[in-house]
Amino acid sequence: MGIKIGVCALQGDVSEHIRAFEAALSLLGEGGDVFPFRKAADIPLCDAIVLPGGESTTISHLLKKNNMYGPLRTFKGGIFATCAGLVLIGREVDDPRVEPLGIMDIAVGRNAFGRQRDSCEMAVTIAGDDQPFCGYFIRAPVIVSVGPEATPLCYADHIVGAVQGPHMGLSFHPELGGDLRLHLLFLERLRAYATAP
Ligand SMILES: NC(=O)CC[C@H](N)C(=O)O
Could you tell me the Gene Ontology terms of the biological process aspect for this record (predicted)? Predict the structure, then answer.
């Protein structure tokens, strides 16, 4: 038994997320099931969902086609959204081809680092952690503004991570590189929100 983590596998980097969450659960000495899903009916069966990086206009189109907007908006667990996933999870995005889910109170700008930084590694500061995190940014979005419901979590020139309840949205790819601090923090917060009265 244990926690059930579903990785939305319509498009994007799915296997890296599965490996990273499996490694985080094994560090915690916990059982659990981390699996790809492609059907809306699988969403309410999960405790947590990963919205991976990929191409947000494509993922938005596929979420619509597979009737996933409704079940994601009413999902009771935590969502771990990276890169294209971050573009989708906010309340506002600067591209009309993406329909935002409106789950986190953030506004997101796509491809915000510009061409010369299409893909790079940058030191990310995580609030409450004095060790920098090596962030892999791949045509990454940024968080342009954080509303009162959400809290900034990560910084690298811009705000590149935020949390809201059990949800975490990140501009970069923490599933690459083997540093599991953000996965562990997500699981810790998920547990805290699941057991909150
Ligand atoms: N690595 C990524 O997920 C890139 C996201 C992409 N630039 C988008 O907005 O869809």
Answer: pyridoxal phosphate biosynthetic process; pyridoxine metabolic process
Buried b (16+ CB within 10 A) or exposed e, 26-48: eebeeebebbbbeeeebbeebbb
Please say whether the beta carbons of 54 and 88 come within 8 A.
no
Enumerate the β-bridge partners of residue 169: 81, 162
Q: CA 167, CA 163: separation in Å to the nearest integer?
A: 6
Give the model confidence (pLDDT) of 120-177 as tens digits: 899 999 999 999 999 999 999 999 999 999 999 999 989 999 999 999 999 999 999 9
Supply the ipTM of this predicted assembly. Answer: 0.94
Tell the residue number behind the tokens 């990273």, with chain if given: 20
Question: Residues marked as binding for L-glutamine?
Answer: 54-56, 110, 138-139
pTM over 0.90: yes
Asked whether 111 lines ligand 1 (CB < 6 A), one says: yes
Q: Is 1 helix (H, G, I), strand (E, B) or coil?
A: coil
Per-residue DSSP letter, 11: S
Report the candidate in 4, 96, 20, 7 with the shortest Cα–Cα distance to residue 54: 7
Q: Is 111 exposed, middle or buried (0-12, 13-18, 19+ CB in 10 A)?
A: middle
Q: Is 83 a catalytic residue?
A: yes
